[in-house]
Specification:
The chain is mainly α. The chain is built from eight helices and no strands. It starts with a helix and ends with a helix. About 15% of the residues are buried.
C-alpha cells in the first residue's frame, strides 16, 4: 500500500494539478478531496468485514487507491491556495505558518486515529471521513472570505518608519548642474557672467 501510494503520487500528481488555474478551481479540488477521502474511510472500514485475507486485501487496495486520489486532489488545491492568498512580500512568513499544520497533524494524528479507529471501529472511520468532508466543504467559503479581505489589496509598506503627511518634507531639491544652468541661459534667465561663460565654453568644447 505504501508503494502504491508513492508510485501514484510520482506518476499522477502533476496531472492532478493541471486543472487548477486559480483559487476557485483549487477550492473545488479540496472539496472533491473531502468526498473521496470520505469514501476511502468507508472502504477502509469494510476491510474488517471480509471472510478471507484475499478479500480484505482487495478491499484495502481499493481504499488505498481512493486515499491517494484524495491526497493528490488535496495537495493540488492547497498548494495553489497557500501561495495565491499570501502577500507577495510575505511568502516566507505565510508558508511557514501554513506548513505548521503538517506538524500539528503529525502530533495529534496518532491520538485521534487511535481513539476513533481502534476505539470506535466502523463508526470511528465514518466520523473521520465526515471530518474530511466538512473540512473540504468549508474551503470554498474560507477562500472567498480571504479574497474579500481589504488588506490583500493594500500595497506593502517600505522598510523603515512610515511617512507622516503632517510633517514637513525634509527632502532637498537636487543641486543645479551645468545642464540645467545652460538650459536657463538659453531661455533668457538671468545668470552670472561666470555661469554664462561656462556654458559657452562647454558648448564649444
Amino acid at each position: 500500500m505504501f508503494v502504491l501510494n508513492t508510485v501514484s503520487v510520482v506518476l499522477f500528481q502533476v496531472r492532478a494539478a493541471r486543472q487548477v488555474t486559480g483559487t476557485a478551481s483549487a477550492a473545488r479540488r479540496v472539496q472533491h478531496a473531502g468526498v473521496v477521502l470520505l469514501a476511502a474511510c468507508g472502504v477502509f472500514a469494510l476491510s474488517a468485514s471480509g471472510r478471507s485475507a484475499w478479500t480484505a486485501g482487495a478491499v484495502l487496495v481499493v481504499a488505498a487507491v481512493l486515499q491517494v486520489i484524495g491526497e493528490m486532489l488535496l495537495g493540488a488545491g492547497l498548494w495553489e491556495i497557500g501561495f495565491a492568498l499570501a502577500p507577495a512580500d510575505r511568502q516566507g512568513q505565510y508558508q511557514g505558518f501554513f506548513g505548521a499544520g503538517t506538524a500539528v497533524a503529525r502530533m495529534l494524528g496518532p491520538l485521534l486515529l487511535t481513539t476513533l479507529i481502534i476505539g470506535w471501529g466502523l463508526p470511528g472511520w465514518l466520523v473521520l471521513g465526515g471530518m474530511f468532508l466538512l473540512a473540504g466543504s468549508a474551503m470554498a467559503p474560507a477562500v472567498r472570505w480571504a479574497e474579500r479581505d481589504p488588506r490583500r489589496s493594500r500595497p506593502a509598506r517600505p522598510d523603515g518608519p512610515a511617512a507622516n503627511p503632517d510633517e514637513p518634507s525634509t527632502r532637498t531639491e537636487p543641486r543645479r548642474g551645468p545642464g540645467l544652468l545652460c538650459a536657463q541661459a538659453r531661455s533668457g534667465s538671468v545668470l552670472s557672467r561666470s555661469a554664462r561663460n561656462s556654458c559657452v565654453s562647454g558648448s564649444t568644447a
